[in-house]
Amino acid sequence: MSTRIANRSLAMRKEPRQSRSRVTVEAILDAGARILSDEGWAAFTTNRVAEVAGVSIGSLYQYFPDKLSLVDAIRSRHLGDSMAVLRGAQADALSPSAFAVSVVRGMIAAHSRYPGLHRVLLDEAPATDDYRDPDSEFEVAFLGLYAKAIASCRKGAVTTKDREAARILSDAIDGVIHNAARRGTLGDPAVASGLVRLVSLYLGDASASPPGPVVN
Predict the structure, then answer these.
(1) pTM to 2 decimals?
(2) For residues 216 and 109, is the Cβ–Cβ distance under 8 A?
(3) Which terminal residue of the chain, N or C, has fewer Cβ atoms less than 10 Å from its own Cβ?
(4) Do 52 and 100 share a domain, yes or no?
């Protein structure tokens, strides 16, 4: 079980504004995510992250005061990747099967970059109470994007039915993908095709076709 942190600010020390600074921060976040995915929370130290990122420990501390703020930024980026998948799915009025393919392919790709990351974020890494709150700002925004995408499939405004469907589909998709990540089966085509069929049938489209290969 991961540790809960109440009422603690985990903000970055400063935001990168220049392109060089943004590249440095991305390298740090990539290194941290890789370590968490491959080696787990016990191996996650600021010195180790700086080493893998190819930056000095001083450069890391310019942006992150400690490893808790760093893991929080990694978690936020991961959640942002999931949000981006849903924004893409609602950009066009997709059919239910096309929506299913888009979301399933996108979510699997987002979790395949660092397959072990989500397990560590859920089970090992400390987290603030905000990430445990089912009514958090992120959760409300995330389910709102799901509802908008589902309403777009139905070519109408968001309804109570869409919001209910958003919660069910979010739980179903997250559950399948997170457990597949834990088992190391994210690349199994049966996971993607089965999940596409499940989502499509739930939204009322029995003509779902399985997605093509996921490109990491």
Answers:
(1) 0.79
(2) yes
(3) N
(4) no
